[in-house]
Amino acid sequence: MSDAPSQVTAPPAAHAPATSEFDRDTAVRTREPGVHEARLSPGWAIGKALNGGYLLAVLGRALRQALPHPDPFTITAHYLTATVAGPATIRTDTARSGRTVSTASAGLFQTDERGNEVERIRVLATYGDLDALSGEIRTSATPPAMPPREQCFRATDHPGGAAAVPEMGHRLDLRLDPETCGWALGAPSMRGRMRAWLQLADGRDADPLSLLMAVDALPPTGFDLGLTGWVPTVELTVHVRARPAPGPLRVAITTRNLATGFLEEDAEVWDSADRLVAQSRQLARA
Amino acid sequence: MSDAPSQVTAPPAAHAPATSEFDRDTAVRTREPGVHEARLSPGWAIGKALNGGYLLAVLGRALRQALPHPDPFTITAHYLTATVAGPATIRTDTARSGRTVSTASAGLFQTDERGNEVERIRVLATYGDLDALSGEIRTSATPPAMPPREQCFRATDHPGGAAAVPEMGHRLDLRLDPETCGWALGAPSMRGRMRAWLQLADGRDADPLSLLMAVDALPPTGFDLGLTGWVPTVELTVHVRARPAPGPLRVAITTRNLATGFLEEDAEVWDSADRLVAQSRQLARA
User: Is there a contact between A141 and B191 if contact means CB atoms under 8 Å apart?
Assistant: First the structure.
């Protein structure tokens, strides 16, 4: 291996586009310490609202710029008001900057039609360096039993066709396990499960920031429980446990307790090396 | 029922002491809007450190005073530096105050030996009113299979006797499921489980604030995986799903993924009416 520049410009690797949709749409510019500007893309909308996982990834990128550590070990977002496409300001506030981890809050703000700044999302996160971790793995977790990718359903397989696919669906190569998409044909399993193979549509491989989006990218488990309509997230916490290997992810989501108008969604994300790379839980309104 | 004062002073109910240890030790005085004073009690120490669940309950009480809603629906704490017994200041910062829920951050600060104010814990929470919720329950969660309370082990049954019980153990009536306390005899099950019956030692019944303590009151699941020593919490998130019925709680904690020096602990708390009243997850350092 040489550090000398190559005479031949290598073509971009198949799984690493020069500028991915995800990287472009989560870009953040630091205006001054603690103040970051983003331009939220309509490409990540589901109906009128921007996806909460996409927004968490934008906040996650601002926190990465504000903190000395690169990777979100644990990040929690509380969704306050509906975020819309367009400009947003993210203010970060560091609580502690330690040797191995650092912790900060952040708020995402937009200007409403009357010119007032409104907080949309508040976040609290601890960052570290996944590459600095080592040591044994003693896990009893096993990857979800799922059919191969080719036997799973794309969003465009929906009886309504491509027109029925939310805008965000075009950013993703999402293949739903047939066992968990009976709801699309009016026959939910009533078990509160959702499983899918997931990649970014443009082939960009997953990384810790895109995992923040991946945990919230599937249709709500509520659909599998016979609920219809929007299931707004109140709070979402993601633990990133390892840097994902290249290749498609498997995402498995479970809801056990739908009660008094709220439900939890527990997501696990597995990489192509059969490693549990992220765990998340959200509290949503039924 | 009459509002007129009774001529006979009723004795305090068996399960509602006039002033419980928990209420006294989590008391918070609001000095000015957004600034609250607490005096942290050494009675909730495990070794030298104060228990993270106890501290979350203190923060939870400050947030209750700061917000228009009484109950923590979802609350996340990041533990920055070790909190010690003695005075503490809690600063709350409301993000949004809505009709049905309100959201705020809070920080717990102490003055170190050099006179500097140090942040110990940062919190983000959404509050609501559990009594205002109604509607159906569609749950597939079932209470943990556990022997009756009388067949479970008290901390004082430990071979080391009462001297081996951490200070916090004296605030609790904690009865460990024999299946999950082999570690105390040098024979951990290696399954990453911990289950117990739990009440406050003075008979005060559980409420949403004491649930914040209950999720972190059992010995770490790491003990059941053969780990020894302290397992410091990086982050703890609690969802309070219902107001607990009077009587002892059952707490069941599971760890599935111990990897690269971190593990998650998932806790469920069940009340005497067989209702799942709280779910929590923490990320801890092995």
Answer: no
